[in-house]
Write a structure and sequence with these properties.
This protein is an alpha+beta fold. It contains 3 helices and 11 strands, in the order αβββββββββαββα. It has a 9-stranded antiparallel beta sheet with strand order 7-6-10-11-3-4-5-9-8.
Length: about 160
């Protein structure tokens, strides 16, 4: 009986640790998120882009994380190109910051945008960063089934 109780407590503790590790933290906000979806930079001299699908209740958000040695910020709108040809344009930025050489941004997703992400894989993400001037970058998906990750994350 003690062994079963110990095993049950250990399983619950491990689940709490796993759930607690998947948080997108930005500014004074944090929200549950998927593991990083790494998109490969389309620029030879650039770091890859980490994309996180986050949730706030039943609402969706998309978080970006980009390693940068400059004190650059992710700015303006975010374009998400899907494999089915759809283009999602995210303009409602919730937060942005640069901490520990990581530029981060968090954007709201409309219900329609979230549904489209659940139906098709991400192909490419285009975003802008500002340091001394504004530059636009893109990063592409190299075979990750993003819709499966998103559907599993939002499964009720």
């Amino acid at each position: 009986m003690k062994r079963k109780l110990f095993t049950l407590v250990a399983i619950l503790f491990i689940n709490l640790i796993v759930i607690g590790q998947n948080l997108f933290i930005i500014g004074d906000k944090s929200c549950p998120c998927t593991n990083a979806i790494v998109l490969i930079s389309n620029s030879d001299e650039d770091n890859n882009l980490e994309v996180f699908i986050c949730k706030n209740g039943k609402s969706g958000l998309i978080g970006l994380n980009k390693k940068t040695s400059l004190n650059a910020d992710i700015t303006n709108k975010l374009n998400i190109y899907l494999v089915d040809g759809s283009v999602l344009i995210c303009t409602e930025k919730v937060a942005a910051e640069n901490v520990d050489d990581d530029a981060k941004a968090l954007y709201n997703l409309t219900a329609d945008q979230l549904n489209k992400l659940r139906a098709s894989n991400i192909h490419t993400v285009k975003y802008s960063m500002t340091w001394l001037s504004e530059l636009t970058f893109s990063a592409s998906n190299k075979g990750i089934e993003t819709r499966e990750i998103i559907n599993e994350f939002f499964k009720e």
